[in-house]
Specification:
The protein is α/β, with parallel strands linked by helices. The chain contains 5 helices and 4 strands, in the order αβαβαβαβα.
């Protein structure tokens, strides 16, 4: 909730069509991933990742508690491990929205490459 949540809502609701695939980088405890799930198209999914194993575990619990296990996948690891995995599991251009949380700043250099 608050300004970050409102900004996420505005960004995802202002799209011409609902996103099919959202990637959340630096998902923390999973709040942004759960919140973003409201904007997915039918059959859409979210891939959320977190470098901190404790935060990722909490995120997995939150996703399960929210009943979103079939929609949200939580990956644990660093960008150099997970960007190639994302490329292997998704076709080029299939990511409709990329969400960088405050914990996701470590990935900015990798995005520029």
């Amino acid at each position: 909730s608050g300004p970050p949540g409102a900004a996420l809502d505005a960004a995802l609701s202002g799209r011409a069509s609902p996103p099919r695939l959202i990637v959340v980088v630096g998902c923390g405890i999973g709040c942004a991933a759960v919140r973003a799930s409201r904007f997915l198209t039918q059959g859409g999914r979210i891939i959320a990742w977190e470098v901190d194993a404790v935060r990722a575990a909490i995120s997995l619990c939150l996703v399960e508690w929210a009943g979103l296990s079939e929609v949200v996948s939580v990956w644990i690891g660093r960008g150099e491990q997970l960007w190639p995995r994302l490329h292997r599991s998704c076709s080029r251009g299939s990511v409709d929205a990329l969400v960088l949380s405050s914990q996701g700043v470590e990935y900015l250099d990798e995005l520029a490459a």
